[in-house]
Amino acid sequence: MGNVVFIESMPEGSYDFLGMMKCEIKDNPLLNYSGLPPFSQVKPEHVKSAVETAIERCKKQIIELSEKYKNEPTWDNVISPIEENEDRLSKVWSVVSHLNSVNNTKELRKAHDECLPVLSQFYSWFGQYKPYFEVLKKIQASDAFGRLSIPQQKAIKNAIRDFKLTGVDLNEAEQKEFAQISAKLSELTSKFSNNVLDATHGYTLHVTDKDKLKGLPESALKLASAEASERKLDGYVFTLEMPSYLPFMTHCENRDLRKELYVAYNTRSSEIGPNAGKWDNAKVMEEILSLRYKEAKLLGFESYAHLSLATKMADTPETVINFLEDLAKKSHAQGEKEISTLREYAKKNGVDDLQPWDIAFYSEKLRQAQYSYSEEELRPYFPENKVIEGMFECAHRLYGVTLKKRLGVDVWDENVKCFDVYEDKYGSKIGTIFMDLYARPGKNGGAWMDECLTRRYRDDGTLQLPVAYLVCNFTRPVNGNISELTHDEVVTIFHEFGHSLNQLLTKIDIADVSGINGVPWDAVELPSQFNENFAWQEEVLNFLSSHVKTGKPLPKDKLDAVLAAKNFESAMAMLRQIEFALFDFRIHLEYDPNKGGRIFEILNEVKKQVAVVPNFKDSRFPNNFTHIFSGGYAAGYYSYKWAEVLAADAFSLFEEKGIFNREVGKTFEELILACGGASDPLKNFEEFRGRKPSVDALLKQSGIEQ
């Protein structure tokens, strides 16, 4: 979004020129698909022309309709047709950005990054285009506004708010500066993400002596052996991708090697470590913080943290800080107790100076000692196909939907699976989900959900069904075997599936507030964290687990142990997340252009305030904190904990009424999952729960005693 006065528009006559190139456009798979995207047909050379064409069509229509109907604008004559073209642009960019995240190549990255300033320019122009802003205000002030549906009204209100947040009220010089800032931020956040990806894939640990790898489970050794073979090396190769890194840190008895890998991981994208200075994000972070501060000031906000809260449930920075500090205070005593127990255990096993690279290793040993099981030994009980089947069964019991595998679909990798979602009541299809579950080169780390298509009515009157991407980075199958998950990974896929249900079960057909769109950021994690709870229920684990060889579910003693260990070191985990959230919020709240970001100064202050685990003084964690520097969580990482309170409190009603109580499930679907961003999530939550949310449910669920 931006202003027509100063933003570079397309060259005069470019639309006609593009029209002359109908053949090229016709052959561009990004512009001419219907239904699901033709992923395999998309090439880097298609990207820029598709984006520019979609933008030009959108821009041309916005200008024409804003002028044509400026005196008598309605939803049908202005907003609806513009939504149609916005959706076409969204469909183009959704595919491009998704492929860039899951199949990153040098050519695709170049094409993707070349489009960022073009997109930024367009959205800056659109957000500052006063004729359309005036059209929206006129519709809101009209008698017809009250006759619009609630989602339509909310979409208009949100759009007017967003116009103000993208500088529509600024003068021409300020608008130009705002647009320049937006474009530069788009470039820098992409650079940050690319640096982290390159740094993650730019390091390997090559070990030829198997004796140095004592303690590692067979699954980790097989993966490391396969990694070595791919590189035409003997022995074993370990990477900084989670399926390789985490088992190594958790099980490898060689302390020196654990330290080596830990240091490599925690110094990624920085001026130190094995790839010192090669993909350093230090200057990128500083520039991002500086530009976010300037953006906020231009818009009249005290800080970027204040700007961030303009679209969230939390009303003031003090509310966020107090919330996090209160949680930290309530968790700290137990956290101290947990780390003290771990230190004592390590001491008994010959380590007097517990270091950060020892935490995962001795935590796992201690858990095994206390609960008589390890995550690795559970893998055979959680084959991927059975987990997915069980996860779908939960959705079936709760919301009355059935997911069926769809074959013959065009996908971006041979291991991607596709499922259609059907309503049991009417038998009608309501959406589709793609699942990309395995780590591989060229794929961003972590796990996420994103939208491919949004539920909305097209201009021809047909309903476009929602489509979601669910992406994880689990261990890929080796030697034709099925992928086996740890229980932690089971929780992860349940989390992302919760996000997906928010997208797929929506009943809203106005794009801007459909599915995950328009949902305040500190409510976005409610469905995902709520859904995690089902991975911890005995009834679910009984039908979710099935040994790969025997087909038998998780034995009763192991199941009891898993449930008993649910809150193992939960206060330490709670404090770690609070540390991230406080750090994120404070660097955006306290930024001072005269002092710079003070990134590591603030991080150390936060650590002293809340952390209980030993500190790695050379950690460069901020340099690879993609959530806040290249994701959508800037001054918003607190959302995880904020939404977790809501999720725990919501689930407590299921615990009272029965975890698969159909009536409660239906109400949760209607008030939380189906309504998208069309209504106030806090009011909906209060209607669902019958009261305001309480932090007590989260503390109880986490086993944190008060």
Describe this protein with a few key phrases.
two-stranded antiparallel sheet, alpha+beta, 7% strand, Neurolysin, domain 3, 5-stranded mixed sheet, 706 residues, globular, 5 domains, disordered N terminus
- Computed CA radius of gyration, to the nearest angstrom: 26 Å
Q: What portion of residues is helical?
A: 55-70%
Shape designation: globular
Largest sheet: 5 strands, mixed
Walk across the major sheet and give the strand order.
Answer: 3-4-5-9-6
Number of helices: 28
* Distance separating the two termini: 48 Å
Description of the molecule:
The protein is α+β, with helices and mostly antiparallel strands. It has five domains: 184 residues, Neurolysin, domain 3; 64 residues, no CATH class; 160 residues, Neurolysin, domain 3 (Orthogonal Bundle); 139 residues, 3-Layer(aba) Sandwich (Collagenase (Catalytic Domain)); 62 residues, no CATH class. It contains 28 helices and nine strands. A five-stranded mixed sheet has the order 3-4-5-9-6, with helices on both faces. A two-stranded antiparallel ribbon has the order 1-2. The N terminus is likely disordered.
Secondary structure layout plus pairing:
Elements lengths: L13 H7 L1 H5 L17 H25 L6 H28 L3 H21 L3 H12 L8 H16 L6 H30 L2 E4 L10 H13 L5 E4 L2 H10 L3 H12 L15 H17 L5 H6 L7 H32 L7 H16 L3 H4 L5 H16 L1 E5 L11 E7 L5 E10 L9 E6 L2 E2 L5 E2 L2 E8 L12 H18 L21 H7 L5 H7 L11 H9 L5 H20 L9 H12 L15 H4 L9 H19 L4 H12 L7 H9 L6 H6 L5
Parallel strand pairs: 5-9
Antiparallel strand pairs: 1-2, 3-4, 4-5, 6-9, 7-8
Helix pairs in contact: 3-4, 3-5, 5-8, 6-7, 8-12, 10-15, 14-22, 17-20, 18-19, 19-25, 22-23, 26-27
